[in-house]
Amino acid sequence: MKSKMTRRELLKLAGIGSAGAILAACKPKVVEVTKIVEKPVEKVVTQVVEKEKVVTKVVEKVVVKTPAPREKVVLRIHTNQGDQWYGWMKEAWERNVGGWRSEHPYIELKFEPVAGWTNDYFPKIFAHVAAGTLGDIVWFPPRHRNHISWGIEYNIVRDLMPMVEATNYDLSQFFPGVVASSSWEGKFFWMPITSEPSCPVIAYNKDLVEEMGLPEPQNDWDYMELTDWAMKATKGDVWGYHVGHMGPHPISCTPQYRQFGAKMVSDDGKTALPGNSPEAVKKVLQWRYDLIYKYKTMPKPDVQFNVADMFVAGKLVSFTIWPVFINRLPKVIVGDKFRVGFFYTPLDKKGSKRRSMLNEHVHGVTTFSKHPEEAFEYLKWHSSLEFCVQGLLSGKGAPVGRPDLFEDQRALTIFPGLKLLKPIMEEIEPDFFVANFRGEEFDREWSAQTQLLLLDKQGTDETVNNIKANCQAVLDKEPA
Amino acid sequence: MAVAEAQAARSKMRMTARERRRAFQGYAFLTPWLIGFFAFTALPIVVSVILSFTRYSVLRPPQFIGLKNYRHALLGGDDLVWPSIGRSFYYAILSVPLGLIASLTIAILLNQKLRFLAFWRTLYFLPSLTPSVATAYIWRWLFNPEIGVLKPAFEFVGLPMPRWFSSMEWAIPSLVIVSLWQNAGGSAMIIFLAGLQDVPVELMEAAEIDGAGRWRKFWHITIPMLSPVIFFNFIMGIIGALRVFDTAFVATGGGPAYATWFISLHIYQTAFVYFDMGYAAALSWLLAAIIITLTILQFRLSKYWVFYQGG
Description:
The complex is a heterodimer of chains A (480) and B (311).
Chain A: H1 7-25, E1 38-51, E2 54-67, E3 73-80, H2 83-94, H3 100-103, E4 107-114, H4 118-131, E5 137-140, H5 149-152, H6 161-166, H7 176-181, E6 183-184, E7 187-188, E8 191-197, E9 201-205, H8 206-211, H9 223-233, E10 239-242, H10 250-259, H11 277-293, H12 307-312, E11 316-321, H13 324-334, E12 340-344, E13 358-365, H14 372-382, H15 385-394, H16 403-406, H17 409-414, H18 417-426, H19 439-454, H20 460-475
Parallel strand pairs in A: 3-4, 3-5, 10-11
Antiparallel strand pairs in A: 1-2, 5-13, 6-7, 8-13, 9-11, 9-12
Helix pairs in contact in A: 11-20, 19-20
Chain B: H1 2-13, H2 17-51, E1 54-55, E2 63-64, H3 68-74, H4 81-110, H5 117-129, H6 132-142, H7 150-156, H8 171-183, H9 187-197, H10 201-209, H11 214-242, H12 246-251, H13 263-272, H14 277-302
Antiparallel strand pairs in B: 1-2
Helix pairs in contact in B: 2-14, 4-8, 4-9, 4-11, 9-11, 11-14, 13-14
């Protein structure tokens, strides 16, 4: 009897084993199919109608569809892997925030988070669309309202308005600008998961300002008042003010252009810098250029975005920040090193109306979803007050554009900056609209020309002319 | 006679049962790799050729447009193509010769009889194992013009510090410096080291007897004997440099004002940000054509300077 396996037998077995493994790997995936069974039941409703002190009782029979005990529904959610989205959503579901999970025991959430940003996320979503395997809910960080394209151009997300109306869901619980941003010709495509104004606040080093004997900055300052203050704050190797996160990019600097009366794109989304906009843009760019070369309150632009490091190192007195930094800067980045104060970005002139731009992240229900009602239920939950408050308290979530959140005492204890942001959110303006949905290309051209100016490679007039011409060339392309 | 010879040849070609079995086993073992090769390499290559003649945005079916993508790229329809190819060449012209010199220098140093030789070799090889993204982040911090670690060093010697990645003039040289740090001690150096150890000792001894000094031995023996290795590293270096992507993507994002917008960055942006897959495929084939042409040219020129032992 043979006790040892020959080499040939070993090879044969290995070959058969490999073939088996390949066949097993190629086995079709078992897809779980869930189904909701809805049965009409009769329900008696008593309605009381009061008219001129005469009480009349009207009894009528209304047939309402009430779901029978439901079968399990699995919602597939494609979202960003960051803590702000996947991290907090998963935790909120596990913690049964607001009792939503126990109220919807038949809904199971299956998160499919994607690491990285849109250049990682979009290809995956598009591949799912092309293969017909997209889940129920998708995430989107809108840029110049290109999220509308997923509703009207590509048919990836569905209009939520029929479900809003069917469930009497009150959209007025959000700031009007938030609803307007995701609406198009009476349709409503996306629910907010993060809503904030673009760069409306300047952070400053309180201790350094006191040390220098400078006055406290004021919320109603115009640009020249800020400039004068910043020039006094610039001493030795310490810079007084940096445009910081407002940068050269339209997504962060739009409020400043609006403040001076510029429209980056016409309302129909087809013309770059319409009307007197070039003049207004020129004023803004000249001010930015002068900050570097004339007033010398900030260094030349740096691709490395190191303003927070400079601030912490005491090399910078003040800089414009994203709202999320209102919380992060004193608590996480600066710590005990010095006290941090905040004030609004300036106005073009005293008494002007403050202009703004909404920056947001949203979720929509896909046209592929077999469970749109349940998916909408989920969106309602993640945009609810309790979900948002608990999200802020957990340190993971972000503010959603709803007024009650901005005055919620629990939220204010953890994020006092909400008080500062509330007046801006009340009048928040949606992002401008790029009709062919080539917002990224538009931004690239805008930023490149701005950088050339700030690097002193071309003049202000040339920059504005190039912005208008190059951005118009992008707008003239066929839809993305 | 002829018929008999043909029959004999056929019977020679016919496989025995044992040979057939062995061949079957061989193919069975090859199959997983072949499947992978065809599915993930050959098929995408073929598909990209086809897509380059289409307008394709993933969400809609490809639409055949003939040579429009190539015309758009070559005839000035896209203002960024030729400048970005120019930048890639500029990067290659700077980084490849400097990289070869640095790698060869390190290889020569590590070919000496030193103490702790294994330690030194490991130390020089380590940067090449560092992921490009981490490398880019580290150098962004080192090159920071306001609070970078290099700033005090420049101040100490009384030189103005360049603005490195933030300067249009310095952005590409800065990327070359990063590339040198990361790659000089990497695979090219290892190949040089192997080549150096292959230089016949008897040639060196004969030259010494003839009175040749170190420099003459290096120039007249080492370099000619290393020329096939230099040629190989040169070709691989050019191909790698023209495809430069990751460090630029992370460190500068193609900026400032397109100063580091290389052709590979343009292809990536076109494909995965704008989803113009057809045009991106055409740009990829344009880059491939440039690389293939350069490689053929280098092979043609190699006969003038590459010396093969016994060749």
